[in-house]
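COMPLEX REQUEST
Ligand: 5-O-phosphono-beta-D-ribofuranosylamine
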Amino acid sequence: MPRAMKAERSTGSKSTGSKSILCLISGRGSNLEALLLAARDEGWQADFGFQAAAVVSNRPDAPGLQVARAHGVPAVVLPHAQFTSREAFDAALSDLVDAHRPDLIVLAGFMRVLTPGFVARQRGRLINIHPSLLPAFAGLDTHRRALAAGVRLHGATVHFVSDQVDGGPIVAQAAVPVWPGDTEPALAARVLAQEHLLLPRCVRWILEGRVRLDGERVVADGIAPHELLVFAR
Ligand code: GRF
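STATUS: Structure written out below.
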């Protein structure tokens, strides 16, 4: 649930030859795993020099850390509980991120609101996946709230992170139906299956340079509209 503000300084990522990501997680890591599996199975390393530089968790017990290790990706714990303020944690996190010089930072289930300073420092190379069709249902408990609202359409969004909680220019969305009698777990599973397809696609597009942030808008070159908005069942 990130948010952002004014630019403070540019961070400078590597130029050519390789494209690296750094993932921030807090828990299960199923989106992280989907991403690493897609990278492996689709041969991203050979295609465009893909590297997963590190996975950083703010929670020492996050199962996603084991996912990272199983894929040979350095797993780093930066426990937020050891910091006296949100600003102090985010400053340390930004330093840690910058030390890896990633081309893209992926919030893959990172369950902390980021400070404006962090987001400003990383703007343009910071994306998030959120389990709703934004701007509907920003924040927590999206599936429960979607059911309570009676919406017929729900889904997931990948977006660049800007100055609102779960806000920022949208890269792509996947929509799923909400069926009469749906339960929260059933709906969550339907959305999650789409998250696992959506996030790797968006990451690949960005690393390949086919999608980028231009001011407040996302520019997508040569990507079919039906890939930017998926209707799934
Ligand atoms: C996902 O639903 C993601 O959209 C949200 O947090 C959840 C993380 O799940 N931001 P996982 O850790 O990737 O399994």
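REMARKS: The chain has a mean pLDDT of 93. The CA atoms of residues 68 and 87 lie 27 Å apart.
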